[in-house]
Design a protein that fits this description.
It is built from 3 helices and no strands. It is mainly α.
Length: about 90
């Protein structure tokens, strides 16, 4: 197995682990759906799946994870804008 093939497999397994981690943290209420950490973990996981799916020609999988990543990006932008509108708290 070449170094590139190993990297693609690592990306896929890491993506799976990260999306599972996000789900576990959400299910155990360690994170919420409004948590930036939740969306960053999902984004990283989706990127791993996109790389792996594209490499293996699993285009439906890569496409679904592209949408998953776009949802995470949208959510992160929305959270950032909401936080920017919040009044500053006095120190």
């Amino acid at each position: 197995m070449s170094p590139v093939e190993i990297a693609v497999e690592v990306a896929g397994w890491a993506g799976a682990a990260l999306i599972l981690l996000a789900y576990v943290l959400l299910s155990t209420r360690k994170l919420t759906g409004e948590s930036a950490a939740f969306h960053w973990i999902n984004l990283a996981g989706a990127i791993g799946f996109i790389i792996n799916g594209w490499w293996h020609g699993a285009i439906p999988n890569a496409a679904m994870n592209l949408v998953w990543a776009l949802v995470a990006i949208y959510s992160l932008i929305r959270l950032s804008r909401l936080r920017a509108r919040e009044p500053a708290t006095p120190e």
